[in-house]
Amino acid sequence: MKQAPHRVAVIGGGPAGLMAAEVLASAGVAVDLYDAMPSVGRKFLLAGVGGMNITHAEPYDAFVGRYRERADEVRRLLDPFPPAVLREWIHGLGIDTFVGSSGRVFPTEMKAAPLLRAWLKRLRDAGVTFHTRHRWLGWAPDGALRFTTPDGERQAEADAVLLALGGGSWARLGSDGAWVGLLEAFGVSIAPLKPANCGFEVDAWSALLVERFAGAPLKGIGLALADGPSRKGECVLTARGLEGSLVYALSAEIREQIRVHGHATVRMDLLPDRTLGAVEQALARPRGSQSMANHLRRQLRLDGVKAALLRELTDRPVWDDVPALANAIKALPITLVRARPLDEAISSAGGVPFEALDERSMLRLRPGVFCAGEMLDWEAPTGGYLLSACFASGRAAGRGMLDWLAGRNP
User: Could you give the angle at the alpha carbon of 135 between the alpha carbons of 130 and 137, nearest 5°?
Assistant: First the structure.
């Protein structure tokens, strides 16, 4: 008599959970995938609204370095499934990709929905069973999985379990960090969840700056932390501080500086394409009866939110001192005092430490329970790095589950 296949539970329908489900189902394992939301991949879809940045085409060593202090651990996940292989996998779904001018990789249609639809069809065809509106509550005394559903609580048995529950950002999409207490109850030490790729606040902007410029983009600027290298790009002036891609790229360093010193000072270059000497030379030209504001606009095309921010953060004597004003334009100090709340962040840092897992991504304190995705203790900037590690960690956990199941009788 033919033995029944192993049955596993994948809890979490983001990229990590879906990738693990594909690995398992393709090996003949019966997969039940549970998600708390009415449909899977909600954060994945929202992340693709402005253009689905899947991965990055920079040299591999530089790519891995983006994971900072966890680069070695993440490399072990990425080596079998690096960005080039991820692109081939996407092409296998019938979705073409291209490399943008910044090195970021996008689907040709720039959308997440076609990719997700093709992927879900492949999974259903492979036999994956989806259970939506199933919020995981932990384990029953007999080891069964507990879920709350619209029809009340239900329990399910599984030979192995993958937890791919996300971090703590964007709770409305299901990634709420509620799993932290459930794992801590079993003795798993969790690194506190912290906002990553997030905005930061200043003590206060003036009412005039907020009224006129809150929400205005600061384009074509440079941003640096302390004496670090300046990055060129853009960010947004908010009612409470700054956010946007340039700020996100420095968020880990800014967060650490605030933790250690109570604040972090970034330096904004309002004209990164002009040297300090060129700015000073332009400011030194005779301005006659013109105001300095008009002089800035005419000589340097510096106006709008940039000029307003310069005025906000400099004293009156600076505007009468050409070298001092030139220095302020090239390195305007902005003091940040706190991160925006975790739920507003694009991603979160902290989570299940790699040290709590074995080489198969299985919890050492809970045999048969595996972890993947953003709930692991790693972080990375935007630019395709977050998704790449989620895909790779899901694949690694799926293969680890197969290895563990192979050592048990079906």
Answer: 130
